[in-house]
Design goal:
This protein is α/β, with parallel strands linked by helices. The chain has one domain: Collagenase (Catalytic Domain) (3-Layer(aba) Sandwich). It contains four helices and seven strands; from the N terminus they run βαβαβββββαα. The chain has a five-stranded mixed sheet with strand order 2-1-3-7-4, with helices on both faces. Strands 5-6 form a two-stranded antiparallel sheet. The chain is elongated and about 65 Å long.
Length: about 220
């Protein structure tokens, strides 16, 4: 996975990219190492410079596929002389603090990938201002990566948003930096068959519970 830093003609940044990349990379890598019981290793390479996009920040609508696709296209075009994109399956872009976009949606571009000099890239996330929130930070891209792995949101889109799983899953309420539920860990293939017991709706079942890892 590669992390590119982008700014815009109307919203430039001179922040030290190491100060942004360090907490993000460490948090993401440690999170997935823990919830996967060591079975998933995430490696993030950051390119420590700001790439200015050719258009103003408002041109890139993070809430639309086309807006994200255009940002990734402009970012990879700018970085292509410095980066061999054949080494990467996922792109993260990060804007500077105080810039335009408030949130950080995932990008799923299997039908229209971003083309680099080395070939297509289908997955990514455009990171906005929520990565600078003290209560969120790295947990934002952790959630968005869940979508890249095929996991759905577990919150509602109207009414009481967190009436389903609350803070018991990273795909629900992320503010408490929760782990991943057993349901999703099982979907990800991180349990062995003998670690899972399926219980019928009726009848009585006795199950011996044993820890899967040391706390």
């Amino acid at each position: 996975m590669i992390l590119l830093f982008v700014d815009f003609p109307d919203a430039t940044s001179d922040e030290d990219t190491h100060d942004i990349a360090g907490p993000l990379s460490e948090g993401i890598e440690e999170y997935y190492e823990e919830v996967s019981y060591g079975q998933l290793s995430v490696n993030i390479d950051a390119v420590h410079q700001w790439y200015q996009m050719p258009s103003d920040s408002g041109t890139y609508d993070y809430g639309s596929f086309d807006g994200q696709w255009q940002l990734f296209t402009d970012a990879t075009n700018a970085a292509d002389p410095d980066v061999d994109f054949s080494d990467y399956d996922i792109i993260l872009t990060a804007e500077g603090p105080g810039e335009t976009h408030s949130y950080s949606p995932a990008f799923l571009g299997a039908g229209k990938p971003v083309m680099t000099d080395e070939g297509p890239i289908k997955w990514g996330s455009t990171l906005g201002q929520d990565i600078y929130s003290p209560s969120r930070g790295y947990i934002v891209p952790v959630h968005e990566m869940g979508h890249l792995f095929g996991l759905p949101d577990l919150y509602a889109y109207d009414g009481d948003l967190h009436r389903f799983v609350g803070s018991w899953d990273i795909m629900g309420n992320i503010d408490a930096k929760p782990g991943m539920s057993a349901w999703h860990r099982n979907k990800m293939g991180w349990f062995a068959a003998e670690q899972v017991t399926c219980i019928e709706y009726s009848g009585t079942t006795e199950v011996d519970l044993t820890p899967l890892a040391d706390p």
